[in-house]
Amino acid sequence: MMPQHHEDGDDTDAMLARLAPPPQALAMVARPFTVSAAALRELAQPDAPAPPALAGAVLKRQVEFAAGRWCAARALRRSGYRGPPAIGVGAQRAPCWPAGYLGSISHSKGWAVAITAASDTLSGVGIDLEHCMDDRTARSVGAHIGNAAEMAVGAAAGLAFETWTTLLFSAKESLFKALYPSVGRYFHFPDAAAESLDREGRVLHLRLTTTLTPRHHAGARYAIDFALGRQRLVTRCLVAA
């Protein structure tokens, strides 16, 4: 196996910028945050209060939620939305985007990111930000994320097992987020399989192994953009309209 190599540095903002240039219709906003009462006050949006169900949550969860919604509200503005900033919480805690728009939110260890687009330009968007697993964690969960053939894809590209396991996990999360609004139900790791990885081009392809809808059928392929940092990685799935 080739020596493990990450992109230099751990500047999450710069890592996000290394994603492939998005279509003009896509907006992305990211920001760091700390877990504190002061941060929660700073992120609060008076005209878009947190849902009552979050009132009893631990501070960390409240700040993560607020940071994600802060990013999402600003991304929506960049996408052309001019309505009320509140983004509701729907089934399975998925964000309820305003009519005519779609989006995705992710947060991980002090960073939040959101992407949005008008629904006539894309039919699905998903983004996932992850802190890289350590080897022990990756070994314990890897078999649940991908089968032996999928793990071989990352090994052939020279990625360390823990990096590839995190990347594969994140890619499938981004795919789930992008397809969930049209699929309307949960689907699981085995329902998509890694087919190829272009490390230099920073894209991997997932293939559905299960038919989820007539459009999203077994054999359908989806490109997942990614970027690696020293401790984090990000994946993004954009589905054409």
TrEMBL record:
InterPro entries, A to Z: 4-PPantetheinyl_Trfase_dom, 4-PPantetheinyl_Trfase_dom_sf, 4PPT_N, Enbac_synth_compD-like
Pathway connected to this protein: Siderophore biosynthesis; enterobactin biosynthesis
Sequence intervals crossing the membrane: none
Residue ranges of domain 4'-phosphopantetheinyl transferase N-terminal in the record: 54-117
Pfam family, one: 4PPT_N
UniProt keyword annotations, A-Z: Enterobactin biosynthesis, Transferase
Domain of life: Bacteria
GO molecular function, one term: transferase activity
Catalytic activity line of the entry: apo-[peptidyl-carrier protein] + CoA = holo-[peptidyl-carrier protein] + adenosine 3',5'-bisphosphate + H(+); apo-[aryl-carrier protein] + CoA = holo-[aryl-carrier protein] + adenosine 3',5'-bisphosphate + H(+)
Residue stretches making up the 4'-phosphopantetheinyl transferase domain: 124-216
Family statement drawn from the similarity comment of this UniProt entry: Belongs to the P-Pant transferase superfamily. EntD family.
Subunit architecture: EntB, EntD, EntE, and EntF form a multienzyme complex called enterobactin synthase.
Role noted for this protein: Involved in the biosynthesis of the siderophore enterobactin (enterochelin), which is a macrocyclic trimeric lactone of N-(2,3-dihydroxybenzoyl)-serine. The serine trilactone serves as a scaffolding for the three catechol functionalities that provide hexadentate coordination for the tightly ligated iron(2+) atoms.
Listed name of the protein: Enterobactin synthase component D
Species: Janthinobacterium fluminis
